Amino acid sequence: MLGIVVGLHLLIAIVMIVFILLQKTEGGAAGAGFNASASVESMMRPRARPNPVGRATAILGLCFFVTSLALALLSKPNAGQQATSIMAEPAPSGGPQVPQVNEPATPSVPAAPTAPTATPSATPSVPEVPKN
């Protein structure tokens, strides 16, 4: 169900973009307040009659709004499910435990015996340097 609504939502979005790009501009309506052409005459001019492209854009906008709400409601967890957070700690499992930061790590395999190292019997002497 969620996949169907997502597909419909994307289709509506693409068609709505196409219809918005096909609409005819009103020639300076956006910047009419910032130049000398804004007068009482231009403000009293009747608006253009709504055309089919404008109506289709409005209908597609409404459909886009409805599918957005449907997606929000479908993605909400059900009553039987618990909401999970990405910040929640995972439940402990029966597997090996990871040592904490303050705990010293104990090796699971005993260390192999090492061969004794030979220690020098006498330390070599360093000749003294005469001071001047």
Overall description:
The protein is an all-alpha fold. The chain has a domain at 1-23 and 50-75. 37% of the residues lie in helices and 0% in strands. It is elongated, with a radius of gyration of 39 Å.
Features of this protein?
132 residues; mainly alpha
Q: Which word captures the global form?
A: elongated
First-residue to last-residue Cα separation: 96 Å
Number of DSSP helices?
A: 3
H/E element order:
HHH
Structural class: mainly alpha
Number of strands: 0
| Uncertain stretches of 5 or more adjacent residues | none
User: Which whole number gives the mean pLDDT?
Assistant: 75
The major beta sheet can be summarized as: none
Write down the Rg.
Answer: 39 Å
Could you estimate the helical fraction of the residues in percent? 25-40%
Percent strand equals under 5%
